[in-house]
Amino acid sequence: MAVRIRLKRFGTKNRLQWRVVVSDVKMPRDGRFIEEIGYYDPLPIDEKFVIQKDRLDYWLGQGAQLSSSVRSLLKRANKKAKKTAKA
Hints:
Number of strands: 5
Low-confidence stretches: none
Number of helices: 2
Helix content: 25-40%
Largest sheet: 5 strands, mixed
Strand order of the largest sheet: 4-3-2-1-5
């Protein structure tokens, strides 16, 4: 079973939000998933990206692959965290 960490869309038409989920690659984007490990809200001025690091590390250790969108969100979050740590 190939497992991927990707975004699942929810919310209303003009108020989109995304959940970071672990799911089988054969499942549709908004379909069944194994575990929800975070969320992403792009609309506030300072976008919110929250993820459970321990669960992310667990699933990556089990062989799960990151989708390109989750990978870029993680890079931006790490960059933002380093920037605030310096200040």
